[in-house]
Amino acid sequence: MSRRHRLSRSRDFDAVYRRGRSFSTRFLVLYAFPREDDREGGPRLGLAVSRKLGGAVERNRLKRRLRAVFEELREGLPAGHDYVLVARPGLAEAVESRGFPWLTERVADVFRLSAGTGS
Prior knowledge:
single chain
């Protein structure tokens, strides 16, 4: 995933948290926010993976996998939106036992929830 499709600044995360809508599943929470300043730009993703999910190696592995899933799903997402995907405890273990296709389906589920509400 290229850097222009990532959220990295604290103020961008804060805007999504404060003004965006949240959608949750068992292992993921998605905050979605339509940008006013760049309605035609591609969707951008920020990740929040807590230390509760494991050490740095486990967290970075999970973030790489989540970015790869986002890259697969990006074409089907609306332009001009920012997303923050928050991983809940237990996700890393579930991904290890069930595999990457399972993770792809879980992330797609939470993005479907956000699309179903017209955010």
